[in-house]
Amino acid sequence: MVSDPKPALPHPLPGAIGLSHLSAYDWEAADGVCGGSPHLHLVCAEAYVVTGGRGAVQTLSPDGYRDIPLAAGSVAWFTPGTVHRMVQGGDLRITVLMQNSGLPEAGDAVFTFPPEVLADPGKYADAAKLPPGTGPETAAAARRRRDLAVEGYLVLREALEAGDNGPYLEFQRAAARLVRDKVPTWRELWRAGALATAERTGAQLDALEAGEPLHLGEATAHEAAPTRLGGFGMCGRRDEYNLPGTTLPYQGE
Q1: Chain segment 186-209, per-residue pLDDT in tens
Q2: Would you tell me how many other CB atoms lie within 10 Å of the CB of residue 69?
Q3: Whole-number Å distance between alpha carbons of 121 and 123
Q4: Partners of 240 in the β-ladder
Q5: InterPro entries, per this entry (predicted)?
Q6: Which of 8, 74, 130, 146 is the most buried (most CB within 10 A)?
Q7: Which of 225, 253, 54 lies closest to 138, judged by CA?
Q8: What is the C-alpha to C-alpha distance for residues 149 and 153, in angstroms, rounded to an integer?
Q9: Residue 223 and residue 131 in contact, taking contact as beta carbons nearer than 8 Å
Q10: How far apart are CA 199 and CA 190, in angstroms?
Q11: What is the C-alpha to C-alpha distance for residues 84 and 46, in angstroms, rounded to an integer?
């Protein structure tokens, strides 16, 4: 008989993806652009599915600077290491899909703060952290964090546009140094979520091939609703789902 292992974490979304909804910030930054806090992820790809409004996502990567238009129905996605900045163009609303079982909420995100902040883990943590709640104090802190990230981002973008990728590459290295100590925890989350989900598919294929699809007897359906509305995320106001193994509660950093 072919074994069909139970989920290591209960009822993940398909592929153990992370899921949230964002309404892009409408705060104007130093360059006159309204939008979120530029940042990158180290091991997670991210996708924007636009459900309303218009705007853009600005990206920095080895192929340079891009400004990708966003409108209802469009989809944009980017791989680990890509700096991205969500730009508000008018009531922009997005469903965000994240790879790897909610790892961004476990710290797989580094803001484009200036180098002197990135070089000091204590300074970085202080600049990235937000007070709890969704009140004026948290909003002010989120805006300060966004402004500091934009300050560093504009330097990276200017250099890339001038053909100098040195500052961008150094930012990537600094980001990797900041998260290094988190990797063992991330590995366990990946094993229990995304990896376990893929391994279950392998077991199910074995069962089908053997003519013993016992896992089909466990078929069922699930539902969920947002567990926090209007939180302050990296890119905008954020509605989140606390789904075990899929999306961890956002910690505001």
Answers
A1: 998 888 888 988 999 999 999 999
A2: 13
A3: 6
A4: 20, 228
A5: RmlC-like_jellyroll, RmlC_Cupin_sf
A6: 146
A7: 253
A8: 6
A9: no
A10: 12
A11: 10
